[in-house]
Amino acid sequence: MYQMTHAVLRALHDDHVRTLALLDRFEALLRRIGPDRPPSGSDAEVTTLLAEMVANMAEEVDHHFAFEEGELFPRFSRFAEPGIPAMLRAEHDAMRALERRLAELIAGAGSGGFEPAAWAEFHRLGRELVEREVFHIQKEEMGFLPAMDQILQPDEAAELEDLYRRKPQGS
Description:
Low-confidence stretches: none
Helix content: over 70%
Number of helices: 5
Largest sheet: none
Number of strands: 0
Structural class: mainly alpha
Shape: elongated
Number of domains: 1
Distance between the termini: 29 Å
Radius of gyration: 17 Å
CATH class: Mainly Alpha
CATH topology: Four Helix Bundle (Hemerythrin (Met), subunit A)
CATH architecture: Up-down Bundle
């Protein structure tokens, strides 16, 4: 594992680690339950994990993705290959769409639980999100963040760290 010298990039890495742990738990739940029988609406483990997923998805879209797109991708494009941030942004867009639909399905299930068709869709999209996001994080960890570590100057990295640690209202 590459050790980033800039704290802002370590913070992004820490977010990745937390997200991967959550995705691992989510994928295990989907595997255990399967697509054919929705979980009970009173299953506390499912309810808690889905609430964590919704919170993580909102944090990711509103803060993590927005920060990368607004602050890091433009810098990377100026100093390195602009196609890489374009690819990562396209992946963000695909994950945003999945996350939006998953959040809608969770909200629609409410306390009564999922209807069978909604659960089947949720299960399919949940597995797709896990696959996409794990692959995306791997790309950022192996290539993008180490390259950004070389691109950023110390004073610029310190300013970006302050900006990243100031979460938008509601996060």
